[in-house]
Amino acid sequence: MAASHAPASVAAATDGVIEENVMAILDSSGIKDSRDLHDDRAAFLEAVRSTCLASDNPSVPSWRMYDGVFQILQNSSSLELAVASFHLLTELGKQYPRTYVADSGGHQSLVVVKESWVPFLFGNGAVSSEIGGNVRSSDHLFDPSRFSLLIEAIVEPTNGTDDNNGIKAIENMMLFQYLVNTLEADFVPRQIATKESLDWVIFRESLLSMLLGSRKLVFKSFVKNCMCILLNQYYHEAKDDYEDIIPSERETESTSYHNFSLNYLSFELKKTLISLRKLFVMVMKLDLTRKEADTLGLTSRADRFRNSIMDIILDELTYNSSYLSPFLLAFVERKWKLEIILQYFSKYCGKGAVRTRRSDNSQEDLKLENVLNFFVTATSAKAIVRKMSAEIAQLLLTHAYQACLSAEDANSNSADTPEKVGATLQEISSNFIAAFQNIRKVSPDIQISPFEKEALFTAATLVRKLKSKERFKQEGTPGLAA
């Protein structure tokens, strides 16, 4: 029996040694030489990794361990420590999830380990009771106000000639990525559990809902700052295949530390844009679930009113038409991009009956097929163009068609995007071409961008192929029976 308890005792002793040195490591900036401080922090990160991840009998990281790693990420002043602490926090989150779904009697139930450490601070500012009597300051945790300030810091341009500024910018972007990953790790299991139980409270108690529902966060300003990041000069580089740009070892060795920092800054910016789009999608899903719960009468006074993120985005795109093209290029999530475009058109193409709380939800939402029908004749096209301009109409139609093609190519399992299309690909392609022809009749001098020309060429090619395929099926294949 003693032998079976030995590994746990060793792990507990190791945890105790690590925790005893955490505060000394983090609070010794004014005492130790910076090189010694760097080495101590690197040793601390390695000790946590060995104890909680690499050991044969890994132990659950304590509150202080998590807290120490998180503080190093925020105040490392070293690219090496920033990267190491970020990856360690990410791995710990995957190994020891705070929120997950478990099978219980044939049903999926939500499990929340409430005593687990989280980087967010809500309510009265109380921290985990695990700290015990020695309660430390929680200023390094992120309340809604500080989360909003982090977005503002990322929006502000960085002085690339200063290595310290570059490292701080990288720390801020890694912090944002980690916080979004934490929100997602809490959000996804709740989404799964909510679909089965239809319990809106599960979503209301999510980290994301508490963050956005706080009075400390001005939601409209927050969304506008997030849009500024998407609309910056790097939007055209925001791609999901960012792994290809990681510098090789040979390139790293042949360049200066300064140039490497700038390259890594660009690399982290691309990942930050991906995290930002992920955050936007989560908020849109939260708003949609809230809307459905409200329709079913499942919400209460505990659910504070907040404008939806879709409404704020549409307002910004409507009153700043120059934002449209860069935003639609940067926001690549096809389902939600199509939804934004359809709601943009709904502002100009008439609105259906107003839905009230607990209505029967019978009014159909606008679909791409309906939008294209508004351009079915030159007369109807003229009425729309008079309201939104021919250039904007062409741009929106092209991005909507692109989203339609992306869904077709991906063979998406989600039925949401096809439902928003409302017709076959052949019909959509034909109507897309007709819409451009009618817009040209209304505005004969309008220019067509290369992006729009490519979409028209693709549509014409698809129409020919699909018609030939349909004709081939109708005529059959003579000689096969024989």
UniProtKB/TrEMBL annotation:
Q: Which InterPro entries match?
A: SNI1
Q: Give the GO molecular function terms.
A: transcription cis-regulatory region binding
Which biological process terms from the Gene Ontology are attached to this UniProt entry?
DNA damage response; negative regulation of DNA-templated transcription; negative regulation of systemic acquired resistance
Q: What is this protein called?
A: Negative regulator of systemic acquired resistance SNI1
> Which GO terms of the cellular component aspect does the record hold?
nucleus; Smc5-Smc6 complex
